[in-house]
User: Fold this.
Amino acid sequence: MTDLRGTELVKESGTAGKMRLASRESLRASVVFLIVLLLLFGLSTGFTRFNPVAVLFSQGEFWNFIFADFVPPSMGRLESLFRAVMQTAYMALAATGISAIAAFFLSFLGTPAITRSVLINSAVRTFASILRNIPTLVWAFILVAAFGIGTVVGVLSLIIGTTGYLTRFFIEILDEAAEETMEPLLAAGAPMPSIVTQSLLPGAMPGFIAWILYCVELNIRASTILGMVGAGGIGLLLMGYIKQFNYAAASTAIIAVAIIIIGVNLLTNYLRKLIMR
Assistant:
C-alpha cells in the first residue's frame, strides 16, 4: 500500500510539475501577429525596393572593400585621435552634468506632490516632451546653421535632448517616492521642506544617479554621430578621414569609438549596480 500511495503521489506531483500548454486563443493570436508582421515586411521591402536576397549575394563586395581599404588600421595619427576622443568624452560629460542640474530643478516644478499647480506641472512636462521628442541630430543641424561648426554646437545639442529625457525620468522617480512616503509624513504634521530634503530626495537619489550614468553612456554615442555633422569630437575627425578617402585612419577612429563606448558602458553598468544595491 505504501508503494502504491508513493506511486500515486509521484504521478500527481509529476502532473502538477508539467508546464501548462498555451491556450488556443494565445496560439491563434501569435499566428495572426506573425502573418501580419510578414505582410508588413513584404510591403516595406516592396515600397523601399530593398531586396534582402540581393544584399546577401553582394556581401563579397562589402568584405573586399573592408579588407582592401580599411584593414590594416593606420597608427600614424594617434595623438590627434586621442585629442578627438577626449573631446568627445568631455562633450558628453559636460552636457550630461548641465542637463542633470537643469532637470533636477525642473522635476520639482513638474511633480504634483511638490508643486501643487496643474498649470505649472503641465507646462514643465510639455516642455520636456518637446525637447526629447525632437532628435538630437535635428538640433545639431539647426545649431550648426546658427553658430557654425564646433564643439559648442555638440554640447548644446546634447544638453537640449538630455534635459528633456532626465526631466521626465526625474519626475517619475519623484512621483514614485512621493506615493510611498508623502501622505504618512504630511498626516504626521511634517513640514514640506523637511519631507523633500529628508525623505523624497534620499529615496530618489539612487534613481537620479542611475539615469545620469545611463545618459552619459547615451551621450558618448550621440556625440560621435553629432561630430559627423560638424559638432566636433571624434565624429568630425572620422568624417574628415572618410572625405579624404583615408580609410585606414578612419578604421582606427572607428576602433577608438568602439573602445570608448564599450569602456563607458562597462563602467556605468558597474556604477549603477553599485548604487542600486
